[in-house]
Specification:
Blueprint lengths: L3 E14 L2 E14 L3 E5 L6 H8 L7 E6 L2 E2 L5 H11 E4 L11 H6 L9 H14 L15 H13 L5 E5 L7 H16 L3 E6 L2 H4 L4 E6 L2 E7 L13
Parallel strand pairs: 3-8, 3-9, 6-7, 7-8
Antiparallel strand pairs: 1-2, 1-4, 4-5, 9-10
């Protein structure tokens, strides 16, 4: 059995709004192993986005413990958390977050500016990641010259360039049409088959069907942890 990558123990998160305290998470316990494809589901206000922020080192728990790849996150300062985000987590967001006046290649290279990777390797790594997502012939294109699906694939390549221990994708198909969204999910499945740990945050049940495990949040609690023995499959067409 693969090693535990993420361990969450009685994690709680409270937000103070004036005199009122709102508990976004109410004591979460879970483990995610290396190589899993996990979907975190729930409606607005369920706690799924708060859980994503904690797993992505974008926030820290008010109580409890969260460990990523053996590191207890609550013991790290802001600079250390930023290093973890850059070197160990690849982020993919709904709105792509690409620099509009920068080529696909340079967008993918960007995370390497803050890494310990020698500059001589930057271009090589970025090109390999763009080829992996089927955009080897679009490296010199700017975002405005790419379709929505192609822009999201540039974002996925950017998430991969630092060789992270996991990919954290927040509603990655939310800005795409149905067919393009399916192609992006097929790409995530391909990356997962190659050994990448994928954590997908979504409120869409049909997108969660692509994952092999679904974590369902409601009112700040983990109410279901379901194994999906037959994830939804879609053929990954030749990407261009």
């Amino acid at each position: 059995m693969s090693e535990v990558l993420i361990k969450v123990q009685q994690a709680k998160k409270v937000y103070h709004m004036g005199e009122e305290s709102v508990w976004a998470l109410k004591g979460i316990d879970l483990e995610i192993r290396q190589g899993e494809f996990v979907a975190i589901m729930g409606s607005s206000g369920s706690g799924k986005s708060t859980m994503m922020n904690l797993l992505g080192c974008l926030d820290i728990a008010s109580e409890g413990r969260i460990s990523l790849d053996g590191l207890e996150l609550s013991k790290l300062d802001k600079k250390q958390l930023a290093t973890i985000r850059n070197q160990r987590i690849g982020f993919v967001f709904q709105q792509f977050n690409l620099l509009p006046r920068t080529t696909a290649l340079d967008n993918v290279t960007l995370p390497l500016l803050y890494s310990q990777v020698p500059e001589s390797e930057w271009s090589i790594r970025a090109k390999e990641c763009l080829e992996l997502v089927g955009l080897g012939s679009r490296m010199g294109h700017h975002p405005s010259q790419l379709s929505g699906g192609q822009q999201q694939r540039v974002a996925i390549a950017r998430a991969l360039v630092n060789q992270p221990v996991m990919i954290l994708a927040d509603e990655p198909t939310g800005a795409l049409d149905t067919q393009t969204g399916l192609e992006v999910m097929a790409l995530f499945q391909q990356l997962n088959r190659q050994g990448k740990t994928i954590i997908l945050v979504t409120h869409e049940p049909d997108i969660a069907e692509f994952a092999s495990r679904n974590l369902v949040f409601r009112d700040g609690e983990l109410v279901a942890d379901q194994v999906n023995p037959s994830p939804r499959q879609v053929a990954l067409r030749d990407l261009s």
